[in-house]
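Run log // design_07
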């Protein structure tokens, strides 16, 4: 397990949704493929919506640009 995975697991265990937004965004930046990047950004978006995170709209826009979400 790498350090980012350990931090993600700790955030999940603590129920820290705001930390999960940041950590999943970090994972997306390091993702080796577009599919993995989309997966991590989707997870970040879900937690952003659950926590009313200020990046929720930006994350959704990114997913729309990637063709992984439909425009409203």
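design_07 sequence
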């Amino acid at each position: 397990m790498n350090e980012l995975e350990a931090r993600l697991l700790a955030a999940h265990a603590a129920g820290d949704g705001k930390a999960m937004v940041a950590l999943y965004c970090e994972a997306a930046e390091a993702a080796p493929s577009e599919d993995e990047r989309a997966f991590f950004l989707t997870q970040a978006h879900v937690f952003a919506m659950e926590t009313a995170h200020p990046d929720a709209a930006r994350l959704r826009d990114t997913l729309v640009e990637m063709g992984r979400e439909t425009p409203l």
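Residues 17 and 50 are 7 Å apart (CA to CA).
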